[in-house]
Amino acid sequence: MNLADSELVLTMLEENGYQRTENPDEAGIILVNTCIVREHAQERAITNISQFQKYKDANPDVRIGVIGCMASHTGDMVAERLPFLDWVLGPDTYRSMPGLLNTLSDRKGPVVLTEGPSDELYEELAPARRDGVNAWVVITRGCNNFCTYCVVPYARGRERYRKAEAILREIEDAVAQGFPQVTLLGQNVNSWHDDGQDFGWLLEQAARVDGVKRLRFITSHPKDLSSKLLDVLGSGSPVCPELHLPMQAGSDRILKRMGRGYTNAHYRCLVEAARKIPDLYLSTDIIVGFPGETDEDYQATEALVRWADYDDAFVYRYSERPGTAASKLEDDVPNQVKIERLTKLGKIVRESGRKKREAQIGRELEVLIETPSAKDPSEYMGRTPAGHVVVVPGPVSPGQIVPVRINELRGFTLRGTVRG
Ligand code: SAH
Ligand code: SF4
């Protein structure tokens, strides 16, 4: 979502005569987009932003701004800790950016705008898309779920839905700009609706847009996943058989305390139904050490992780976020225990992930080439329709879809050769 938001902000700057640079030495404006979903992310952001002060010391005309969730939820704290900043702008306030460009800060501290219009959808603003392969298309902003551990609904405000027409038009534009892949984005895509239509319908319409070669979406909340969506997910190209279905915990007691709105049994039913889709790539998010999580609760998570046989999972230690309902509960699981649970789950997921990848060896799959490999630029990184990463030797170019024979697994990365 932050990548998509950065593209919107870039559009506004480009419309005001600015050009993008990756080199801070030549930048007149430096913006840092932030995430505060966990405390670690927040502290890392503050360290990163501090490093930009030297550009302002060298040239006082340089403007530096913090945008994103840190700006909305903890804007005043940011202004206090980083007084050299010019702007601190929350996710619904970016339309103020052009107006701020010509006002020099009076150096009493940054302009802090935490809240914008609660219905802001940034319509009529075409994102300045960055890479040439994937187009992020936002379908909802904000979140109404208030999972008890989560700061997103406070930082990003209430849920709002873009109109189907605007979304489909944006997909057509992305195709016209040459993007082979579109990823639909929302904190919970399953709650999208417009005029009686639901997300399953939207995905079906998106798949019909001429020229879309690959279609993905994140994130699906298990409480709202419909069988209609699973049908469309299994309908084949261009819909990629990839489902990110955050389970968070396996214990019903903890799921209830998290306010997730589903049970272990319900989650299992969904996974069982989804696994009927051929080649499904299933991933998840898990939090270990939520307040009150006993060893028995953790065992329920571990059992569910073993059973679900994920292709990948993001496992996090619970991080107390100010203002959330869970912050009123005692963060009583010792850090050492959190680390042990995290490490153990990480190992289980690596094993299932490795097994899933090994099963791809010997197959011939269509790989969408994304970027030159970081280690060896004569090789390229791409993805199968399901989402497994494959490295192939060049020459190939980003955006191309090539048939690849998968030969081996090195670490967590498949390697293959392009077929004539
Ligand atoms: N809207 C998405 C998630 C956004 S946050 C969804 O509901 O799936 C991404 C992930 O961060 C969450 O799925 C959760 O696993 C993790 N997360 C959120 N708040 C957290 C916290 N306070 N501590 C640890 N992990 C957290
Ligand atoms: Fe946070 Fe829950 Fe909303 Fe996801 S669905 S953003 S975890 S409150």
Provide a descriptive summary of the structure in words.
This protein has 420 residues and is α/β, with parallel strands linked by helices. The protein is built from 14 helices and 19 strands. The strands form six sheets. Strands 15-16-17-19-18 form a five-stranded mixed β-barrel. Strands 1-2-3-4 form a four-stranded parallel sheet, sandwiched between helices. Strands 5-8-11 form a three-stranded parallel sheet, with helices on one face. The longest helix has 24 residues, at 335-358. It is globular and about 60 Å long. The protein starts with a helix and ends with a strand. The mean pLDDT is 95. S-adenosyl-L-homocysteine binds at residues 37-38, 149-150, 152, 187-188, 219, 221, 246, 248, 285, 287, 316, 318-319, 321.
How is this fold's topology laid out?
Blueprint (H helix, E strand, L loop, with lengths): L1 H14 L13 E6 L4 H12 L2 H6 L4 E6 H5 L1 H7 L5 E3 L7 H4 L10 E3 L20 E5 L1 E2 L10 H5 L3 E2 L2 H13 L4 E5 L7 E2 L2 E2 H9 L6 E5 L8 H7 L8 E3 L7 H7 L5 H11 L6 E8 L6 H14 L3 E6 L17 H24 L5 E9 L6 E5 L5 E5 L7 E10 L2 E6 L2
Parallel strand pairs: 1-2, 2-3, 3-4, 5-8, 8-11, 12-13, 13-14, 17-19
Antiparallel strand pairs: 6-7, 9-10, 15-16, 15-18, 16-17, 18-19
Helix pairs in contact: 9-10, 13-14
Bound molecules: S-adenosyl-L-homocysteine and iron/sulfur cluster.
The site of iron/sulfur cluster has 10 residues, from helix 7.
TL;DR of this structure?
With 420 residues, the chain is an alpha/beta fold.
**Helix proportion range:** 25-40%
Give the strand content: 15-25%
Principal-axis shape equals globular
The DSSP helix count reads 14
Bound molecules: S-adenosyl-L-homocysteine, iron/sulfur cluster
Terminal residue distance? 38 Å
Rounded radius of gyration (Å): 22 Å
Structural class: alpha/beta
Main beta sheet: strand number and arrangement? 5 strands, mixed, barrel
Strand order of the largest sheet: 15-16-17-19-18
Runs in which pLDDT lies below 50 for 5 or more consecutive residues are none
Mean pLDDT: 95
Number of strands: 19
